[in-house]
Amino acid sequence: MDNIVPGSFQLMKKINTGLIIDIIRLKGPISRAEIAKTLNLTPATVTNITAELINKNIIVESDLGQSTGGRKPILLKINAESYYIVSIHIGSTGIRTAILNMESKILDKITVKTRPETTYEEAIKIIKESVERLITQNEKVKGKLLGIGIAAHGIVDTEKGKIVFSPNYGWKDKDIRTDLERMFDVPAFLDRDVRAMALSESWYGAGKYVDQFISVKIGYGVGVALTNNKQQIRGYTDGFGEFGHTKIAFDGPLCSCGNRGCIETFSSEKAVERYAAELGIDADCMAVHELSLNGDERAITAINKASEYLGLAIANLINIFNPRLIVLGGDLIDINDYYFNGAVESAKKYALTDLYKVCEIKRAESKGDAIIKGAAVLVLENLFDNI
Ligand SMILES: [Zn+2]
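That's the Transcriptional repressor of the xylose operon sequence above. Prediction below.
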């Protein structure tokens, strides 16, 4: 017994449960034998875990499958409408709220714009009104809410469910989990936006096929997540991934953290807006994006400049971690080819060649929905914790 790492059995079970749900979601209706074969698990493991999932009404037995000689196998499928999840993304410029079913399909969503002056209390009011409106618009959700997943930018304390510091709004030490649990009377779970994106990629995107990968979320800030065997690396006090605040200049532009010369002041969406302003375009980064599509040279120059710094930042990640895969996500990087391709080119230029050539750099597969989907996974993951 001494050789067994404490919690390793529970962890294995959690991972296996996640994999089984995922395979049923993707390939269902599917037989237990087929699941065992696909995932290389023992039939007993599959039987035990699927029995618990049936008990919880998360999966159901469906039609009989094709026989290969003997008895027709019973097939399993996700009970998509058994429960629903509310997913909330508190971003730098807006709050997105969505309702998802158990197949992680987004049924409905609302986005409300915010300002840097938006207070925490105003944000909670936006969330309350958005959730209530979504539930009113989707009658079947009533009484079937499984939980709330929250993804927030900045520093969070996942264990305590608190927003520690939200640089774009200046919020400090906000107990959002308790506030939302009281409001809606269901369990809530919180993590950083980039980790939610990483979760989404590890469940539904490119991260499914690799043991370890890096996610980079570029908004007004630049956050990093490192996913290892479906688990997030968190650092000593949950602060892992404040990559945007690593410095590349002593006296660079002032950053939201109070310091100067942070990489995000050179490479983020905010940097795109600043470079564009220097060239005479007074617009937000989505408007700069539109201009770049119309061939506006100043807009293209602004985006290219930020992308070169972003690539430099990615090159540093490649040189430190030697990853097999880096996933990039964020509103602008999702849709703007100058930004994405420029960053890839620049990473190639600045990373060590041997490390760059083994690393694939991709966009997040769920694009704009990656964080919302990942926040829903926070609820699903914790559901498995209790199985
Ligand atoms: Zn900073």
